[in-house]
Write a sequence for this structure.
């Protein structure tokens, strides 16, 4: 049978019927080497947040510290898109951005060394099955990347409400030659308070223990 030409009544079938996600164009970091100053502008200190989720910490931190820049990396497109749009809506887009990327992939491309003044990782790694271990963020591979990026004297906050996660995270940093712990092993409060992550704020309201670890780059 001869091919039937496309007409307005019989359009060519599109390759996929699945609609594009409204978040498909969430900003992503360049695929080449990245200079932090090209991404978050100005000369203020830089906060790097890994996995901001709904972004409460980044927004509260920006509001409390208008002299700081914030670079957030969130693997989920929806969360990343929403946080970046909220930063823009508050007029902070020059100094605060969120990108939809896997922090484990992009951190090695970010520089220059020592260009981050503080880093925050709040309640990471919400996976408990062995087959999900490949998703973990706070691994032995992350610590040397943060040691490279954080300037001497800069702080890294890692906090969780999961005791066995805290027990695993602590020695990764405390035993790395570039870091010293400011807690024994935990600290009472975040050095970045009153800015709180979404999970942190819920834990505080619910009276749940939060295991906060703060490490200073030697
Ligand atoms: C349990 S949530 C905590 C969210 C937020 N930090 C808080 O405390 O409310 C963990 C977050 O890390 C993000 N995440 C997981 N793996 C990541 C990766 N490789 N790179 C960047 N973000 C990641 C998740 O998408 C999620 O938003």
């Amino acid at each position: 049978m001869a091919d039937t030409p496309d007409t307005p009544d019989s359009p060519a079938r599109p390759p996929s019927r699945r609609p594009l996600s409204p978040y498909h164009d969430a900003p992503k970091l360049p695929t080449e080497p990245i200079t932090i100053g090209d991404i978050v502008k100005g000369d203020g200190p830089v906060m790097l947040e890994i996995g901001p989720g709904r972004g409460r910490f980044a927004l509260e931190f920006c509001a409390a510290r208008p002299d700081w820049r914030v670079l957030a990396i969130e693997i989920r497109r929806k969360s990343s898109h929403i946080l970046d749009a909220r930063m823009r809506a508050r007029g902070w887009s020059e100094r605060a951005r969120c990108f939809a990327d896997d922090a484990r992939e992009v951190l090695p491309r970010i520089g220059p060394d020592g260009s981050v003044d503080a880093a925050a990782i709040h309640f990471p790694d919400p996976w408990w099955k062995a087959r999900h271990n490949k998703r973990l963020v706070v691994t032995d591979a992350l610590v040397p990347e943060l040691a490279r990026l954080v300037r001497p004297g800069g702080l890294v906050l890692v906090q969780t409400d999961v005791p066995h996660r805290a027990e695993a995270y602590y020695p990764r940093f405390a035993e790395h030659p570039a870091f010293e712990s400011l807690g024994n092993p935990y600290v009472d409060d975040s050095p970045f308070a009153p800015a709180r992550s979404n999970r942190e704020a819920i834990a505080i309201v619910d009276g749940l223990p939060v295991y906060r670890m703060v490490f200073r780059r030697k």
User: Anything to note?
Assistant: The beta strands are 34-35, 46-50, 69-73, 96-99, 110-111, 116-122, 150-160, 179-181, 211-217. The radius of gyration is 20 Å.
